[in-house]
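Quick one: co-fold with nicotinamide-adenine-dinucleotide.
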Amino acid sequence: MDKILKNYINGKWIDSFCDKYTLVINPATTRKLAKVPVGCTQDVDLAAGSAEKSSFEWLKTPAKQRIQYLVKMEQILKNHTDEIAEICTNESGKTFAESKSEIGYAIDNIRHACIIPSVLSGTNTANNANEYINRMPVGVAACIVPFNFPILIPFWFFPYALACGNTYIVKPSEKVPMTMTRVFELFESLKLPSGVLNMVHGGKETVNAIINNTKINAISFVGSSAVAKYVYQHGLLNGKKVQAQGGAKNPIVVMPDADVDTTVKAVTDSAFGFAGQHCLAASLVILVGEAANIFTPKLIEAAKSKKCGYGMDPRAEVGPLITNESRKRIRQLIQEGVDEGAELLLDGRPVTVKGFEDGFFMEPTVISNIKHSGIVHVNEILGPVLGLIKVETLNEAIGLTNSSTFGSTASIFTHNETAARRFRHNVTNANNGEFFGNLNSIPSSPFGNIKESYYGDLSGQPINAIDFFTQPKIVMENPNKDE
Ligand code: NAD
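Sure, here it is.
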């Protein structure tokens, strides 16, 4: 009998009201792991009702007391890192090391959320009156999570939301719901007041119910751009605060003078880690001038050396893709790129991983001469595919970088300070890096994107989190007025 996942509502594990399910599958072994409900309005209504009911008591709970629960959460994640990481690897395909590092980033966010009490206090802003800004929680907030960071992304939001006095609902991705289910089971030992932290499973049915629920006041979404835009628009129409992070296409500009070893390692680790399914994966390398001749053979060599395998095998560097449909889509995009005239320098499509012959694996693929504005250039492939584009000048590289409809990250590899400065100054695509394949910023930075990579104005994490998860309330007192 398949394990059926339950929702966690009001401090209890509860069956979904819906009787339709999707399968959770280990993408390396294709073994069925569990059934997860597709979700429905009644599930969300129950969770939102319970979160709303507990929100008044929770906001009255002193902030320093709220933080104590977060401190204990950190300890639970530390004590159970291997167990949680193994579940994550088995349902997402990540390597065990990648799953463990995700837990490390989640812990970083918990720690940062613990500073919130010190910045929530009121401010005296007037001369003749005592005027304070009290930051009131927004009430009930929810996050909608993508498949590629089942642990980290909920922790981008709910520790801050709870610290600010909100109650919360997490909706994991239906493709990888087991990791957060286990985390919630472990969190039962916290004895958080019932209803403060809830989890509702499901797919788009649950998302629509969240968007339409009148008790939920704020939504944090992370996923593909099309769904981000949908959630943002419909959430706003329903009067909610919404921050919606979308997809990405992260270009890396390589100048001829860049250090070969550093560049090749950073680019290939970023492009092929988690089988290229990170939102920050370096999927496009823009080679300037002579860099094409210097770097192309080295990138192919490094890509070839990456070992595909089951994430629990310590030798594996590239795990499977999340689903077979995803693999079919990626193979199709590669073919369309080739049909447009791109050159397949390394074809990772035919692959057999011994012992895991049915797994959704694909080996690193390198495509060169990709057409400007063509299939491989403009689409977020979300697979182990590195596209190479040759240009003659840095200006052309900057122009190409800025032409993307996405706006997540862009990096340059060079020793030439003038080139680096021009890049920093002229690239408008959100976050810039030098010598970085993946720009994993620290939690205290307001990580956010622009264009189709972000819908909203306040990014998650500390600086903006307080503005997102609270509503300022002005309180004025006349100090000279007698009782
Ligand atoms: P997705 O958009 O398919 O799903 C994200 C969430 O939306 C899931 O919880 C899913 O249940 C729900 N959903 C899916 N289709 C829906 C629909 N039609 N209507 C309503 N809800 C729907 O994304 P994914 O494939 O799970 O995740 C990968 C995407 O997430 C990539 O585009 C990646 O770049 C992006 N991502 C972005 C960031 C960032 O920081 N910007 C971080 C991680 C992932």
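If it helps, The mean pLDDT is 93.
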